[in-house]
């Protein structure tokens, strides 16, 4: 009856334009059959509704709601055969109605998305036929309601069912291919879901999702001006930290393109981007692709920071630059900093981004606080790799170069970790760390009022600094301003002296650092900063150091560097002649600290050609406690005399008449040495000293002939000698005290 009489009856009603009767027939088919409790009745109702739709023809569009709703209800039927009949019935209804079904697209899509995951293969096959038909209709039509569909797509895209995911991706690919449908405008709504689908266990689904994301990225490159970069920045930040390699690589590739296409639009999200990118820089070859893309992201982001970012106060800054491609909508989402939280960080809501299309200008605020916080956290994290630490230090150096005024607001908080980083195992890390510290110590911005110590009074002892108590007759720590900024290096700021104090504190607390890296660190600093200021300030600090043993060790280290390092060639030449007031002042400053170590004091006198004073010092050695360490240092000094650095000294041995105290000083060293290889070496050298009578020439008998080095003016050598005796007496007292404590301890052990 349904197959023959119903279509004829419906056609008659259509011919009569009897809509009430048509609705009545459809209602009966729906209520009494399709929604019946009896399976056979439901089957008949579905067949009847399909037949009714065919009979209605083009007029079926007027009754689609009444025709579709009962069929969709049967999609949830427990009987798989009825679900199949429902698919077949809806297929016939849609086939007849064609474009008229688009107003009902959302309910159709919702029903199909459920059938896509149906366990029955026949039902799934039937739903696929219906799905293809619906896709053809959408592709052909220009009346698709994308705005109304997006909320449903956003909801369904988070399904965990593989078939449902495949269904979703297939529809996204179809919508992308339709020229009249601009899905790119709504990409922020579905991008997160796409990246989650990219992590599906099915290779086929992952491949489909890759294709979809690839198509979107191509479209972004073609039309960057219509892309809402800022609305998707945090989504990419989250997925750039994914555990799945494919998700992470894809998100990182998107981030690379976003930074290059959007430019400074991405700056407000810099801290989140760095949180995601920096750890990737230490990946091994197993994740080489991710590492390479992350490196490009890092470099591109760094280039976006410019000197103009330092010009105005951060709270009021409105940087105006030529616009990069961006959307016309206001973008104000803040950055996501935390790697474990997918929610947007509301602390950055005050970041202002606006894109006025009329003037084509862009206003961006650099959130330096957030960037520095991320960099600081990475430096504190001991588990991060070497390349990440290097990248962090490069960022800090770059920020100090581009935005020094703002960076010095963070220097006090960064300073301790930068000092601790000097203990890093990697030489490359230490080199970059020294570059940052050197920039802090030499930047003119560091002298600005309110950024750290502006005079010596601020360089006072603290828990993280050397204790340098003032002594009678010596300038106090509050009088060190001249050392912080000497006339020869006007760029040295108030952080320079603070740096020197804390560096020596580091060496004092970590003797292995001094032994293994001390010379390396100081030599590099002499390249990065002014060598004279470094030695002058360290000597001044060591002069008031209470740990005399450390002071002696540190002076020996500095002296070895001074005498042997190629980096200090100019400083050695400056000290060799003592022709200028600055060089004489430096000599006196070094001498007073060098007195902590008798042998280094003599070597300094040899370097500065103060041979008479060197001889006077060696005469005082008879009153000192001669230990194995003392003799070892004398041995090393003899070895140094044979080095190229003291070539001029050896040549002066030819002029016996004008250098008697040089020969006496060398003989004094010889008398101190036991019969050893050093003794033999120096003895052979002195045996080569010519007889002064044999060296007489016609010219040498003339008045003023030959060269005689006179003592440098304005230097009180008597006072220097007294200072030497005073320091050595303190060292002797300290050794006796240590020996006494050891003896008491031994007695307690015996008792």
UniProtKB/TrEMBL annotation:
Vacuolar protein 14 C-terminal Fig4-binding domain: residues covered: 511-689
Keywords: Endoplasmic reticulum, Endosome, Membrane, Microsome, Repeat
Keyword Plastid: no
Localization annotation: Endosome membrane; Microsome membrane
First-listed, main subcellular location of the protein, grouped into a coarse class: membrane
Source organism superkingdom: Eukaryota
Biased composition regions of type Polar residues, renumbered to the chain: 474-487
Quaternary assembly: Forms pentamers. Component of the PI(3,5)P2 regulatory complex/PAS complex, at least composed of PIKFYVE, FIG4 and VAC14. VAC14 nucleates the assembly of the complex and serves as a scaffold by pentamerizing into a star-shaped structure, which can bind a single copy each of PIKFYVE and FIG4 and coordinates their activities. Interacts with NOS1.
Entry similarity comment: Belongs to the VAC14 family.
Biological role: Scaffold protein component of the PI(3,5)P2 regulatory complex which regulates both the synthesis and turnover of phosphatidylinositol 3,5-bisphosphate (PtdIns(3,5)P2). Pentamerizes into a star-shaped structure and nucleates the assembly of the complex. The pentamer binds a single copy each of PIKFYVE and FIG4 and coordinates both PIKfyve kinase activity and FIG4 phosphatase activity, being required to maintain normal levels of phosphatidylinositol 3-phosphate (PtdIns(3)P) and phosphatidylinositol 5-phosphate (PtdIns(5)P).
PANTHER family tied to this protein: PROTEIN VAC14 HOMOLOG (PTHR16023:SF0), TAX1 BINDING PROTEIN-RELATED (PTHR16023)
Protein's name according to its UniProt entry: Protein VAC14 homolog
